Amino acid sequence: MQNSKLKELSHIEQLKNECKFIEALKLINELEDKKELTLQDQFEIHYLKSSLLNEMGRTNEALKYVELAYKESQQLKIDLQIIDVLLSKSSIFSRTGRNKEALKNIFKAEQLFQRIDQISSKEFKEKNASLLLRKGGCYFDIGDLSRALKYVDKASTIAKEIKNDKLLLRASKLLDFIYYFKGDFNLAFEYLKTFFAIAKKLNDKQEIIGALNSIGMVFTERGDFNQALDHLKQSLSICEEINSFKTGVVLTSLFDLYLNTNSLEEAQLCLDRIKKIINQEYNKWLDDCYHVGKALLLKKQHQKVNHLKAIELLKQIVDEEDTFIETQYVALIHLCDLYLTELSETNDIKVIDEILTYLTQLKDIAESQHSFWLLAETYSFQAKLKLITSEFQEAKILLSHAQDITKKYGLTKLAERIRKEKMELINQESKWETLKDSKTTMAELLNLTHIEDQLTQMLRKRFFFLKIV
Fold first, then answer.
1. Which end of the chain is more exposed for a tag (fewer CB within 10 A), N or C?
2. Buried b / exposed e across 301-319, counting CB within 10 Å, b at 16+?
3. Is the pLDDT of residue 464 over 70?
4. Interatomic CA distance for residues 58 and 62, integer angstroms
5. What is the pLDDT of residues 274-283, one digit of tens each?
6. Does the pLDDT at position 186 exceed 50?
7. Mean pLDDT along residues 206-220
8. CB neighbourhood size of 30 (10 A)
9. What is the CATH number of domain 204-282?
10. The pLDDT value given to residue 172
11. Terminal Cα distance for the chain, rounded
12. How far apart are CA 353 and CA 275, in angstroms?
């Protein structure tokens, strides 16, 4: 009976690797219901089921089963199994935005790993690289790019040494994200191309989807919309071929492309498809994206009434208790943008108080998630508003806070930008003093702060939230 069950698990694993998730889930549910399962059987079933549900994007269910597997692994007292479960727990926590829990599980896994000595050299290196990758991913999630790069570089070196393409794929993907956030977009794109090449070599369709989606988003940012469309359509085609849960993610990327090209009818068609997916199987994250999309289509239409409707929709998203962090972030940025438009049109300085309210919420997100790049951006944004209200000393203090954060956590390009902003303020303080008593409009003052450019940059970093790790 034991051999039979091991064969069944092997078959289910194969189905998972082939992206036949529904069939795999049906089989593992049947296996789970069998009687006379040993504790080891139960562990293997729950561990595999958690991995399968995580691949399907059903993270809450995945967490439930990985917790069961963790309890069983502790009872079995096999350190390598416990380490594997802790790595899985960390990965799922990261996907649900619970960065502190993700890192705590890595620390536990490291402690166990240090006392293991009865494994082969190759297995030791593979496990070490997996730990380093997951640790690097955790530090990336909280915005500590210096530490993230340190651990992922080490893992990449080991992966090359032992010629493990699966580990090298994960390392290349993370290095893409890290260099993207460091501001080295060319090097980031080189790692993205490496990630794509390895995914194709392994014929890992889920990873191919993710790579094509990321490449499409990069081309959208660069304004190369034909290339973006080509890659995103390829990604969507593979999604449809394997019925991937990432279909909704790719559709949101296509929606952004169409929004950038003012192809509003095509953007609406993307939203209609997203709505159809939600109706078939409800997904909170995708539902939030759908409602943000509706708001952004309204925002694209310049009539005041449509902007008011967009604000109402975005406020509802922000105020919901169970809204995903990514969705809150995007909604808050767009709310700031809409109120900046109102400020430039009305010259009503009271509108700044509304914007500051949303910046406070962004700051809360940054602090709760230990997202240091977002914290630095928020301080910089607040400083620009302080310039408009002639609070120059407060603006300097805020920029100093932002500067300290960027230096501490290796945010090289952002550090340089904020340094320039601070020097500009110091050099042009007398100019701003003069403007304070002039009849300069809010629109002109906003233009002088380059605040719209910053909003654009912050929205570009939605790329980070759509990473598929």
1. N
2. eeeeeebebbbebbeebbe
3. no
4. 6
5. 999 999 877 7
6. yes
7. 93
8. 11
9. 1.25.40
10. 96
11. 36
12. 35
From residue 252, give the alpha-carbon distance in Å to each of 22, 221, 237, 287: 23, 14, 15, 11
Identify residue 219 by its one-letter amino acid code: F
In the predicted structure, residue 465 carries a pLDDT above the cut 60: no
Token reading at 69: 């597997």
Half-sphere exposure of 383 (CA within 13 A, CB side): 27
Give residue 432's identity as a one-letter amino acid code. Answer: W
Separation of CA 210 from chain center = 12
- Distance in angstroms (rounded) separating the CA atoms of residues 225 and 217: 9
Query: Nearest 5°: CA angle at 121, between 118 and 122?
Result: 120
Token look-up 């809204």 returns 323
8 A C-beta contact, residue 70 and residue 42? no
Q: What mean pLDDT is predicted for residues 23-41?
A: 88
1-118 has CATH 1.25.40.10 classification: yes
Give the tokens for residue 449.
Answer: 């702060």
Q: What are phi and psi of 184, to 5 degrees?
A: -95, 80
Q: Which CATH number among 1.25.40.10, 3.40.50.300, 2.160.10.10, 3.40.30.10 corresponds to the domain 119-203?
A: 1.25.40.10
What whole-number distance in Å separates Cα of residue 357 and Cα of residue 337?
Answer: 13
